[in-house]
C-alpha cells in the first residue's frame, strides 16, 4: 500500500548512517521537500541522479530541500563503502540517509526505486511517483508546490 496523498511527512528514524548532514522532520518545517529513494544496484536510479542534482540546484533558491534515501535491494547493497562512493561520484551534495534496515522505507510505505515524494511547506504529501517516468511526472507538481511559496 503506497503512502496516501495529503499524508504528513513521516520521521527519518532508524537511519543506518547519514551522509552530508543529518536532517529531521523538524529541520524541514516550513520548507518544500523532495524525498528521493534510490539504490546502488538500480541502473535507472544512477541514470536519474544527475537530474536530481539539477532539480536541487534549480530550485534551491525557492527553498526546496532534497533528501536522498538509499534503499538496499539486496544484501550486497547494504555495504556502506560503495554507497558512499556512489554519493561522491554523482556529487549528491544533499543529505543522504543510508537506510539498511528499511526503517525510513517502511515509514514512507515505499516499494520502488527510483521513487519521489514531494511535500509542501506544511509537510503534507502532494505528489509521489516511481519508476522510469517518475522524474517527468514530478515537474508539474514541483512547479505548483514552489509557486505556492
Automatic annotation (TrEMBL):
Gene behind the chain: ykuV
Pfam family, one: AhpC-TSA
InterPro entries documented for this protein: AhpC/TSA, Thioredoxin-like_sf, Thioredoxin_domain, Thioredoxin_ResA/DsbE_sf
Domain of life: Bacteria
Annotated keywords: Disulfide bond
A single GO molecular function term of this UniProt record: antioxidant activity
Coiled coil: none
Protein name: Thiol-disulfide oxidoreductase YkuV
Membrane spanning stretches: none
Domain Thioredoxin: residue ranges: 3-147
Amino acid at each position: 500500500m503506497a503512502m496516501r496523498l495529503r499524508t504528513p511527512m513521516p520521521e527519518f528514524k532508524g537511519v543506518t548512517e547519514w551522509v552530508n548532514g543529518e536532517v529531521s522532520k523538524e529541520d524541514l518545517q516550513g520548507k518544500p521537500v523532495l524525498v528521493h529513494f534510490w539504490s546502488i544496484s538500480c541502473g535507472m536510479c544512477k541514470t536519474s541522479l544527475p537530474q536530481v542534482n539539477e532539480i536541487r540546484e534549480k530550485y534551491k533558491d525557492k527553498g526546496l530541500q532534497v533528501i536522498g534515501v538509499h534503499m538496499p535491494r539486496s544484501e550486497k547493497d547494504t555495504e556502506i563503502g560503495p554507497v558512499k562512493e556512489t554519493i561522491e561520484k554523482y556529487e549528491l551534495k544533499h543529505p543522504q540517509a543510508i537506510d539498511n534496515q528499511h526503517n525510513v522505507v517502511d515509514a514512507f510505505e515505499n516499494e520502488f526505486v527510483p521513487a519521489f515524494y514531494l511535500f509542501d511547506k506544511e509537510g503534507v504529501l502532494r505528489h509521489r511517483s516511481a519508476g522510469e517516468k517518475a522524474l517527468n511526472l514530478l515537474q508539474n507538481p514541483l512547479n505548483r508546490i514552489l509557486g505556492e511559496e
